[in-house]
């Protein structure tokens, strides 16, 4: 299963090599041209006899950690790469560097914490990674400053058509994008697997500048807040409710005609579609839509519980709905381009 392979690969922002290799192996037979640019974006072109350019985009990177220090006792200090809540980190397993050195994220034991420490959210500077080393010298035999650490999480299917994994954001979008490459294209279509989305949409900015698309569709994952403790009025999306169409987030106001077409025509065609009911967050659309002289842009997102954590949860049916709606767009692109 491609999605499992992608989710279990490590690809923290700036170190997407493992993910890129998997994707390149899958897509080279499907494309007329494949380019890896200086940022590390994978850009695959399927040519058609047209003057229009279409950009389909999903990001390869995931949130994670980067090693920033080693203590005298051999513990590793780190910084986060992308937005991570410190509360989800304690006692989680990680693997570090190209040799995938195993480690556990630790903090001072609760028995030794003050009342104030127990009642406040820990700061990243209070956490450390234990790799079993007894000294700085021993740790340095295996770890260097600047090594990346990714969450050590297995991909599992559970419940009724649900999956648990790290990096569903946005390996699910990447898996859909690979499947879309098997379709014929009406216009020159660029399938972009971008880097460094989690740290500022950096890869998409470069890719869009290179391609200069007339229209772009972003395939993403987004917050799903239909969990215990959240009132229904505060739901952003609902798991199993279908692919989410965004009208606005912190980086983009989607093209009104484009997002309404996706929502309305998806519904008419029997695709399960929902609106993303919050303007929080952002994705590669934020960089793409203001590139060049401006690009008509919209986003499709997979609802994902516990986003940016060691283990997120998504529904396979929502992923299927994303693929169906993206295929509808490709088949009827003349109606929106």
Count the E strands.
Answer: 17
**Percent range for helical residues?**
10-25%
Give the termini distance in whole angstroms.
Answer: 33 Å
Q: How much of the sequence is in beta strands?
A: 25-35%
Helix and strand element order? HHEEEEEEEHEHEEEHEHEEHEHEEH
Shape: globular
Describe this structure in words.
The structure is a single chain. By secondary structure, the protein is α+β, with helices and mostly antiparallel strands. 25% of the residues lie in helices and 26% in strands. The chain has an eight-stranded mixed beta sheet with strand order 1-2-12-3-13-16-14-15, sandwiched between helices. The two termini are 33 Å apart.
Q: What keyword list fits this structure?
A:
globular; 337 residues; six-stranded antiparallel beta sheet; eight-stranded mixed beta sheet; alpha+beta
What's the topology here?
Elements: H1 2-8, H2 17-27, E1 33-36, E2 42-46, E3 53-59, E4 64-70, E5 76-81, E6 93-96, E7 101-106, H3 115-118, E8 128-130, H4 136-140, E9 148-151, E10 156-158, E11 162-165, H5 168-180, E12 188-194, H6 202-211, E13 215-223, E14 243-245, H7 256-268, E15 273-275, H8 285-288, E16 296-304, E17 312-315, H9 316-331
Helix pairs in contact: 1-5, 5-9
Summary of the model, kept short:
By secondary structure, this protein is α+β, with helices and mostly antiparallel strands.
């Amino acid at each position: 299963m491609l999605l499992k392979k992608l989710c279990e690969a490590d690809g923290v922002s700036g170190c997407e090599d493992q993910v890129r290799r998997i994707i390149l192996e899958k897509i080279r037979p499907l494309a007329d041209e494949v380019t890896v640019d200086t940022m590390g974006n994978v850009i695959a072109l399927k040519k058609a006899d047209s003057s229009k350019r279409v950009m389909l985009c999903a990001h390869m990177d995931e949130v994670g950690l980067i090693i920033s220090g080693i203590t005298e006792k051999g513990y590793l200090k780190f910084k986060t790469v992308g937005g991570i809540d410190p509360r989800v980190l304690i006692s989680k397993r990680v693997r570090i560097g190209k040799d995938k050195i195993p480690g556990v994220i630790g903090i001072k034991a609760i028995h030794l914490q003050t009342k104030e420490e127990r009642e406040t959210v820990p700061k990243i500077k209070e956490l450390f990674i234990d790799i079993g080393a007894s000294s700085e010298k021993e740790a340095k035999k295996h770890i260097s400053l600047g090594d990346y650490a990714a969450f050590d999480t297995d991909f599992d299917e559970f419940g009724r058509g649900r999956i648990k994994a790290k990096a569903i954001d946005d390996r699910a979008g990447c898996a859909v994008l690979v499947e879309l490459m098997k379709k014929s294209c009406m216009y020159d279509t660029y399938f972009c697997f971008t880097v460094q989305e989690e740290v500022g949409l950096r890869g998409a900015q470069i890719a869009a500048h290179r391609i200069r698309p007339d229209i772009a569709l972003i395939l993403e994952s987004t917050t799903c807040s239909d969990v215990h403790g959240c009132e229904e009025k505060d739901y952003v999306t609902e798991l199993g409710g279908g692919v989410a169409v965004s009208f606005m987030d912190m980086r983009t106001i989607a093209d009104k005609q484009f997002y309404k077409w996706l929502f309305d025509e998806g519904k008419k065609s029997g695709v399960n579609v929902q609106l993303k009911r919050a303007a929080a967050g952002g994705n590669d659309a934020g960089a793409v839509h203001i590139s060049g002289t401006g690009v008509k842009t919209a986003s499709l997102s997979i609802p994902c519980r516990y986003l940016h954590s060691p283990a997120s949860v998504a529904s396979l049916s929502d992923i299927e709905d994303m693929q169906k709606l993206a295929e509808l767009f490709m088949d009827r692109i003349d109606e929106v381009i």
